[in-house]
Structure formats: structure tokens, C-alpha cells
């Protein structure tokens, strides 16, 4: 059986509760996997150490949801090194404007000597002894739009999505990651909390999963959450299967996305109903 036909045949059996075949407008699932995983160089990126998650908020910190999200990833993806710690930082305690008084810096080494593994944020007070400091590897910013725009500039997260975010409208959340040799070093997640239509739960889940290495959307996917539609999916198991494939012991940072897609495919075979011919 030709390789691609075999792939489509295998995947047509895999996802319980999902269509056996994709629509005419939708890419084959294998291609969706590659699209979601591939960096601009066609490689995969992932964390090699436990990142620290820091939530910077000026209102509801969504503690229960964020802690539950972290617990779920830690439990369902055994190859992931785990979230090292979760910290919540209330931005309302800083009574100066962010612009001109805030810095985000990535030191040469920090976590067990890993280069650039901790981002240090300093909120400068009127006096040096009034400075507020916080560290993290992945930052979630739950702020108003203006502060979100400033924080995007301070974290060098300014690109096409940040422009759309700044313009308002439908782009109510986005993320950015930084890497070194395809190992993730920093992640930044932005939510516009000024907009009552911001789907906070969906944004938190999707952008957090993407900072773990699921880098891109696959437009119109009926399988994965990362479809750029904000649709709530009851079945998120395919997302976690994809993350398990990325953090498989058979994968290293810098591998081609096609390799992880093959790992993902092989993970499905024990779940198939019926025999599928091997090449």
C-alpha cells in the first residue's frame, strides 16, 4: 500500500467520535501534524528542562484553571519534563506605568547551567529598593490591551500576530516562543482581558499547549484544537497524543517535523480496529 494511502487508512480508524475521513477542504491528518509542529526551518522545538510558569495579572488570575491545565499536561505527557513551578504576580501592586519602568532580560545561564533558561522581569520602583522582580520561562499575561501591547514589545513578541492583537477585533490572544538550537527557552502568552468576548478558557489552553512546542495552527482542522477558530472541543485527546509524540524518547529537538508525524502515526496503530496491511 502506498505510504500516504496507508497513513490515511490508519488515521481513518483512530479518532473515536471524529469523522473517519477529513473534508475536501481539510488537509490529511498527517499533513496537519507536520503543519502544527514545524518551525520555519521545518524542525521541531521542545523544552529540555522543566520551565517555570509565571502568570502576570491585574485581575482574576484564573488559578484553578491554570493549575488544572498544568496538572493535566504533567499527567498525560510523561516524556515532558514537567512544569517546574507556577507563580502568580499581581500587577496591580505596581503603581507605575509599564513603559519606561519595566525590563525583561534573559541571562546567560540559570537553571542548572542551561543557557537562557530563566527570564527575569524587573518592575522598577521610585527607588531601587522598591523594585519588584519576578522570574519565569513561560509567562502568561492577563492584562488590558494597552499593557498587553507594551509587554509584547518588552518581550520582543512583536510580529504579525501582535499587530492584529494591538488592532483589537478578533485577535484576542496570541503567543510567542524563543529557542536556542531548537530547544525552547522562553514563551509568552497574551490575552486581552479588556474585551468581554475574549474566550479566556480556550485561549489559555490553546496558547499554553502551543508554547510547549505545538507551534502553529492548522486552519479548519476537525481533529486538533489548533485550528485558529476558538472552537471549544470536548475531545482534546488528539492534542495530547501529538504532545506525547513530540516528547517521545525517539525525538530530539531539531528533528524534522515529519519524523514526529511518523511517531504520532505509529502511536495510533495499537488502537486500530481490524487489520491494516503493512507495506
Q: What is this structure's SSE topology?
A:
Blueprint: H1 3-14, H2 29-37, E1 52-57, H3 63-76, E2 85-90, E3 102-105, E4 119-123, E5 132-136, E6 138-143, H4 145-154, H5 160-167, E7 173-180, E8 183-192, H6 200-211, H7 237-246, H8 257-268
Parallel strand pairs: 1-2, 1-6, 6-8
Antiparallel strand pairs: 3-4, 4-5, 7-8
Helix pairs in contact: 2-8, 7-8
Can you give a write-up of this model?
By secondary structure, this protein is an alpha/beta fold. The protein contains eight helices and eight strands. The strands form two sheets. A five-stranded mixed β-sheet has the order 2-1-6-8-7, with helices on both faces. The protein has a three-stranded antiparallel β-sheet with strand order 3-4-5, with no helix packed on it. A hairpin with a 2-residue loop joins β7 (173-180) and β8 (183-192). It is globular, with a radius of gyration of 20 Å.
Task: Give descriptors for this structure.
279 residues, globular, disordered C terminus
Strand order of the largest sheet: 2-1-6-8-7
Compressed to H and E, one letter per element, the order equals HHEHEEEEEHHEEHHH
Q: Give unreliable regions as ranges.
A: 15-21, 272-279
Largest sheet: 5 strands, mixed
Helix content: 25-40%
Brief summary of the model shown:
This protein is 31% helix and 18% strand.
